[in-house]
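Handout for the seminar on molecular recognition.
Each group receives one record of this type.
Step one: identify the two inputs.
Step two: read the structure output and locate the region that could contact ribulose-5-phosphate.
Step three: write two sentences on what you found, then compare them with the reference statements printed after the record.
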Amino acid sequence: MTQDEMKKAAAEAALAFVEKGSIVGVGTGSTANFFIDGLGRMKEDIKGAVASSEASAQRLASHGIRLFDLNDVSEMPVYVDGADEIDGSLAMIKGGGGALTREKIVAAVAGRFVCICDQSKQVAVMGKFPLPVEVIPMARAHVARQLEALGGRPVLREGFTTDNGNIILDVHDLEITDPKGFETTVNQIAGVVTNGLFALRGADVLLLATPEGVREIKEG
Ligand code: 5RP
């Protein structure tokens, strides 16, 4: 089974979590794209979707799925998205695609976060995947110095601007043994919009695709 086949299998399994008549929160990335394509087949069963990026909004629209502004949505039973790393407590590193801030906002409104991953994303300790940090451009050097003081090696994501008009620093060489504490610490640096740790609000369900099938793992 290829990695793409596993991503698709996890995404297809997530369709079972979509409630009829609801507005669905939709993530960003190659695994989320498989989910969007599946959602396209059941678009008559849902009210619509809130996208976590311009790219996902375009893909949802191409399937004729109605898009909602998050400000007009008070109830969203489920948010479905991929991850770059996920640990045993279902804390994640996200933002490989640079959509971390909108992903965190949309996920915050949702009742449940369903994470869809192939098995390569499961880790014991996060940090091998560089931690994305969205930064206000004028704060780049200050934030980089603070991240170095925390033991990381920030690298500017060249030629990339987020949907919010900001830059991304990808922080290498981390071993994140306290994901909630580290998420809080990095978010307190002046100039940081948010960082790609989703630990304070991790996933509620992980659909982990393996060559043997999709495993459902629940938080707690
Ligand atoms: C985008 C993300 C993605 O969920 C993450 O990068 C995983 O992507 P993929 O499904 O392509 O492996 O956080 O900002």
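Reference statements: The two ends are 29 Å apart (CA to CA). The helical segments are 3-14, 30-41, 54-62, 100-109, 140-149, 179-187.
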